[in-house]
Task: structure prediction
Amino acid sequence: MISVLFAVLTAFSNGAASVLQRRAARDAPDSEAMRLSLFGHLLRQRVWLAGICLVVVAAVCQAVALATGPIAVVQPIFVIELPFALLLAGFAMRVRLPGSLWYSVAAMTAGLALGMASAAPGGGAASVRGAVWVPALILTGIFEAVLIGAALGTRGNARGALLGLAAACGYALTAALMKDAMARLEGGGGAMALLTSWQLYATAAAGVGALFLLQNALQAGMLVAVQPPLTLGDALISVLYGVMLFGEHLRTGWWLVPELVAIALIAVGSVDLARSPLASGTAPLPPRRRR
Result:
């Protein structure tokens, strides 16, 4: 229950941060795409800095969640990031949310519940044993290189979607490394074992890389193109890391049918929510009527 609670808190913080970062990144000039100078532009944006503060809060909550639960349980919960963010934005801006948005929120929530109930993720070790990280990091590097190479050959929403998926892979890798690092803290070595583990510094590097890819994805394309691969990619790749690295288990066989239905519900809901004016930062929805 602790891991689920902190996973929900992480989703809330990350969802709000994603919308804030999108509002800042969309005004960045095209000449700064895929360059470190993009961060220089964003650092001057207060809304982007507010989003980064929420990212830090989310990182702390995520560390607690991963330290107390399987990665295949924690990471899929993050699909509710966008619904949380839009509901919060609607409350803060005092706008009336249309019925279609609530249907999309319901679709994503139902998809998450169906997927978790069908897959029933669990088990697994607290840390990665042996040299399993070596092939995992090599395959991840190849996958990221292919996505980034393909993105550089496109523009607009296609580039945003590809970089969004690359960012999702980076965030999933960050979660796996973070879980392995936190296991060092709980393994009896204390803070010194954590500070001397390569996983801790790899977590920071992967997190910064994923953040860089996400900012470029948001700068290149609309949120409706970036959010679905980011949402589903993070969840699915994280589950893959959980199974392959930590030995966590999922239901298979005929359970794959409701699991695929759950993925479809989350995908449809994510696309619809990303089209919302609250998510894209365009004109606000009609205000609520006073009674």
Remarks:
- Confidence is low (pLDDT under 50) at residues 283-291.
- The longest helix spans residues 156-195.
- The chain is about 75% helix and 0% strand.
